[in-house]
Design brief:
Layout: H1 3-17, H2 19-23, H3 39-52, E1 55-60, H4 62-67, H5 78-91, H6 96-100, H7 107-122, H8 128-136, E2 141-146, H9 152-156, E3 162-164, E4 167-174, E5 183-184, H10 186-196, E6 217-221, H11 231-246, E7 252-257, H12 268-277, E8 282-287, E9 301-305, H13 308-320
Parallel strand pairs: 1-2, 1-7, 2-3, 7-8, 8-9
Antiparallel strand pairs: 4-5, 4-6
The structure holds zinc ion (ZN).
Length: 325
């Protein structure tokens, strides 16, 4: 098991042990009671910490995806209607994930919905928070670890610079995991969406199938109980492990963006652990809800509680004005 995956596994065990604490939205760690800096000073410090770091590990989670306009996963709102309008009218789902959990009467309609779901992320433009982050990191040595499946980071950076540990909407796997292969989903999804037109179901012959067993394919993503944790999955953990270990003695900044309370084990707590154990590491989190800075890290880190899109926009503007005098 790679270094980073091992960290995640340990964190998961801790999570199970303190499940009731986590489930109530809290953390078993003792948090700092130091008052936060005023917002403008936090932005200046964020820019300065990025500037002074030798390298940065970005941890991009659900809050970043939501800040970038991917806000239709858990609610029936204007953007859900824009992309899933015909399903919203017919089934009144409360967001994109609700439709994924629906018991569809036919495989053709299930795939119509799933193709719509995948097509939305596959064809989405790169959203402003990701572009602002990219501008902030310009000229830096950095690596991206993400639990988002929305392919935003891989639209910006080469695969070797991004670890997608919860999968990626651009790939299919065998739904029964009969093989360790993954294959392209972008072409088949475009075909399904085109063939469906204004209907809610795809033609039977377009249902994507596993080339090995002939069973149905499924997107290569965690969340539905059949996530293929094979070669491609291990590669993601190997990439982030290599980067972190190669830079453990550098001025390494862990920059956490939008981790929710249900999944602290992939980015947040490993980042805490590494910041504590590496001598020159620093930690900054941006979160629109939770102000969770462990007491042990109060001199090595900061949390900005504010809308992520706003923070990245303001930090980019501040950075472009040059170093503070
Ligand atoms: Zn198969």
């Amino acid at each position: 098991m790679s270094f980073y995956e091992d960290l995640v596994t340990q964190t998961q065990m801790n999570y199970s042990h303190y499940y009731t604490v986590y489930a109530s939205g809290r953390t078993p760690y003792e948090l700092t009671d130091k008052p936060a800096l005023p917002y403008d000073q936090q932005i200046a410090r964020l820019v300065q910490e990025i500037r002074e770091a030798d390298c940065v590990v970005v941890g991009g989670a659900s809050g970043l995806s939501a800040a970038g306009g991917g806000d239709f996963y858990y609610e029936d709102n204007a953007s859900y209607r824009k992309y899933f309008g015909k399903y919203a009218e017919k089934y009144h789902f409360n967001g994109a994930f609700a439709g994924m959990m629906h018991h569809w009467a036919t495989r053709e309609e299930f795939w119509g919905y799933l193709a719509t779901f995948l097509h939305t992320t596959q064809t989405a433009p790169i959203r402003p928070p990701y572009l602002d982050l990219d501008a902030l990191l310009e000229g830096k040595d950095f690596f991206v670890l993400t639990t988002n499946q929305d392919t935003q980071f891989v639209k910006l950076y080469p695969e070797e610079q991004v670890a997608e540990i919860q999968g990626d909407h651009r790939f299919f796997q065998c739904a029964a995991c009969c093989t360790d292969d993954t294959w392209d989903a972008v072409g088949p999804v475009a075909q399904m969406v085109q063939a469906m037109g204004e209907h809610t179901a795809i033609p039977t012959e377009l249902i994507p199938r596993c080339p090995h067993c002939g069973g149905e394919a499924f997107p290569w993503v965690r969340g539905y109980g059949n996530f293929l944790q094979g070669k491609k999955y291990e590669e993601q953990y190997e990439k982030v492990s290599r980067y972190v270990l190669a830079h453990k003695d550098s001025k390494l900044l862990f920059l956490e963006l939008g981790v929710g309370r249900l999944t602290p084990m992939f980015i947040q707590e490993p980042f805490w652990n590494l910041t504590l154990s590496f001598p020159h590491a620093r930690y900054i989190a941006v979160n629109n809800q939770y102000n969770f800075l462990p007491k042990q890290l109060e001199d090595k880190g900061m949390v900005i509680v504010e809308d992520i899109a706003k923070v990245l926009r303001d930090a980019r503007a501040s950075a472009s004005r040059g170093p503070m005098q």
